[in-house]
Design brief:
It is a single chain. With 468 residues, this protein is of the alpha/beta class. It has two domains: 273 residues, Ribonuclease Z/Hydroxyacylglutathione hydrolase-like (Metallo-beta-lactamase, Chain A, 4-Layer Sandwich); 187 residues, 3-Layer(aba) Sandwich (Rossmann fold). It is built from 13 helices and 21 strands. The protein has a seven-stranded mixed β-sheet. A hairpin with a 2-residue loop joins strand 17 and strand 18. It is globular and about 70 Å long. The mean pLDDT is 93. Bound molecules: zinc ion (ZN). The site of zinc ion has 4 residues, from loops. It holds the Pfam family Lactamase_B. It comes from Pseudomonas saudiphocaensis. This is Metallo-beta-lactamase superfamily protein.
Length: 468
């Protein structure tokens, strides 16, 4: 009998990692995500893997977000030499995201080593380096949605569109063990069916074991159109108040959605701001990859910018969009005291250029901060959403006087009803495990699944292992 171990994103939303092992000695890792958020979570990125990377046959990756892919270079640095299977678009996004992640790791270590040297402490090594990442990138194997491939002997995988970000996949793994075949379906991150760019997540109907994400297991998102209207109102209010609008955003997925919505408002003459800055080199890179894989997006030519051939180039959707790739370009934004919308990373405000814009704007009551997505516990974004009066960033304390708005409707994750709808397509009642969610949210989903479908879902503990 094959075994499945729950190694990461268990009762939390980061560090996605699961291990499938057969009795014939085949080992396949599903996702190899980085822990993000609280300091102790981030420290666990340095812990040893609970398996020997050298013994893995393959990695199967659901999508490129760092909380699903961020430890791949460490895995390779510690001896993993096999293939990393992912969709073609995910393979391309990995290059962008993990080279950036390696740069952050190297810079963090460099900074830490400066103060360690002054204390007479030995230097630390970065979690991984650019060289580790470049080696890892050579192990990628691009796959196509809907086309089964043999990930490892006896493990046949098919990717289905998860509709979460470009390239995101639901992983269907058919695992043979001693002549017996079992089907594991891992939802990955399921998209919000209302996304303007993504298809609705593919529905599957057969599995023996399901791992389903539950980020928003406790609630539905606000109505989509109402959220667009809410955004339009905030932008009008910011215009009247005479301040800037800050939008911390994930470079991949959220940013492209925001550009789409802002483009829509611009075309309708409802965007009072004079300039929208995309102040994120990674998001600028992601736009190019979204344009490259435009045929995988759910866009019809009716998108903002009109149906001309250029309209699928994301920047064209919003004529007043200015990209600021270099640090010098970024600093020019500081001149704007009003009338600017600034989209910058990181999405949960834990780093990146958004911190500089916080320094210049967060303490000004005429400014508005629009949080368009989930903020994990322990992140600066969560602290602000939870109502902190002051926050510490870039070595100084800053008052939070800007108006803070949370827009739930733009989430790239399925809400509670969408999760229940997705899982209800499975014909029998396979064993269902809730993953990738905070415990309280999973408990709500567990209860609702029982009430509505009479389906008892399990909430695994970290390190649990089950027979497939
Ligand atoms: Zn994701």
């Amino acid at each position: 009998m094959a075994l499945l171990s729950f190694l990461g994103a268990i009762q939390q939303v980061t560090g996605s990692c699961y291990l499938v092992e057969t009795h014939e000695g085949v080992r396949v890792l599903l996702d190899c995500g980085m822990h993000q958020g609280r300091r102790q979570d981030e420290a666990s990125n340095r812990a040893r893997f609970p398996f020997d990377p050298k013994t893995l046959n393959a990695v199967v990756l659901s999508h490129a977000h760092i909380d699903h892919s961020g430890l791949l270079p460490k895995l390779v640095a510690e001896g993993f030499k096999g293939p990393i299977h992912a969709t073609d678009a995910t393979c391309k996004l990995l290059e962008l995201m993990l080279l950036d992640s390696a740069h952050i790791q190297e810079k963090d270590a460099e900074w830490e080593n400066k103060w360690r040297a002054r204390l007479g402490k030995p230097p630390v090594k970065p979690l991984y380096t650019r060289i580790d990442t470049e080696r890892m990138l050579k192990q990628r194997q691009a796959q196509t949605y809907g086309e089964p491939f043999v990930a490892a002997p006896g493990v046949t995988v098919t990717f289905h569109d998860a509709g979460h970000i470009l390239g995101s996949a639901i992983v269907q793994a058919d695992v043979e063990d001693f002549g017996r075949s079992r089907r594991l379906v891992f939802s990955g991150d399921l998209g919000n069916a209302c996304s303007p760019l993504m298809h609705a997540p593919a529905t599957l109907d057969e599995a023996d074991v399901i791992l389903m994400e539950s980020t928003y297991g406790d609630r539905d998102h606000r109505d989509h159109q109402a959220t667009v209207e809410e955004l339009a109102d905030i932008l009008q209010q910011a215009h009247r108040d005479g301040g800037n609008v800050l939008m911390p955003s994930f470079a991949v997925g959220r940013t492209q959605d925001l550009i789409y919505y802002l483009g829509q408002l611009y075309q309708q003459g409802r965007l009072p701001q004079q300039a929208v800055f995309l102040d994120s080199p990674m998001a600028i890179g992601a736009n190019a990859i979204y344009s490259l894989f435009q045929e995988q997006l759910d866009i019809t030519g009716a998108e903002p910018g009109g149906p001309n051939s250029d309209s699928r180039r994301i920047e064209k959707w919003l004529p007043i969009l200015k990209v600021t790739p270099s640090a010098e370009d970024s600093m020019t934004i500081n001149r704007f005291k009003s009338g600017a919308i600034i989209i910058a990373g990181s999405g949960m405000c834990n780093g990146g250029r958004i911190l500089h814009h916080f320094k210049h704007n967060l303490w000004r009551e005429e400014c508005h901060l629009v949080i368009p997505g989930f903020q994990a516990r322990g992140t600066l974004g969560r602290t602000i959403v939870d109502g902190a009066e002051t926050v510490k960033l870039l070595h100084q304390r800053i008052a939070v006087r800007a108006r803070v708005h949370t827009l739930g409707g733009f989430s790239a994750h399925a809400g509670q009803s969408q999760l229940i709808d997705w899982v209800s397509h499975f014909k029998s009642r396979p064993e269902l495990y809730l993953v990738h969610g905070e415990l309280e949210k999973m408990q709500v989903l567990q209860k609702v699944l029982d009430e509505r479908l009479g389906w008892k879902a399990n909430i695994p503990e970290p390190g649990d292992r089950i027979a497939l």
